[in-house]
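Hello, quick one for you while I still have it in my head. A protein chain has come my way and I'm curious about its shape. I'm sending you its amino acid sequence along with the backbone structure tokens. I'd be grateful if you could look everything over and explain what you see. Here's the protein in full, and shout if anything looks odd to you:
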Amino acid sequence: MTDQLRRDVVIAKGKGPRPPDWADSLYLQEVHLQCEFALRAYGEIRSRVDAGSNDPSLLAFAHMVLVFAGNATKLLFPSPRATPTANDRANRLRNTMGIANTPPVGFVDARNYFEHFDERMDRFLASHEGLLIHRLIAGNVSDEIELDGGRRFRPKFLQLLNTNTLELSLYDQSVRLLDIVRGVELLQQSVATALDRVLPKAPSSDS
């Protein structure tokens, strides 16, 4: 039995030096896949929130949205410390997709959330004063919390997901998940159009 594979999922090694763009179609497919993962994670959030859930899995899916959006960002908008090879590849991919040289709103924040998160957590805890709460998932977040004895505090959270606004706060930064998702949708549309141009078409069943 012989396995049959579509040409667009196979890269063959030929003779001679490879051109710089030899794997660009694979990078484009990876961008599309990371966008798809981000949108599916957001879909899980929406379905659970609409069902009235506030279980901890919502935070997991919120983290997934940021991770997958951040992965797409790394391929298309490398960090200032990226290698010349990574910058050249990103320039080619953006040109093929026909997108701007600046990432969509919130994408850099999404990527930065999990870069050295332990160090960011250390800095936040070292500088924090007052009432600190590890995690909260709620639709209404009070400006003040009253403790036993009538004392009132303005709480701070390590992780906060507002299920009404779908704003995610980690330490001292916040991001609107809907802004991230809109950017992901635009990227996915652009990369899908690019893939239609660069990938060979599958043979018609009528041929």
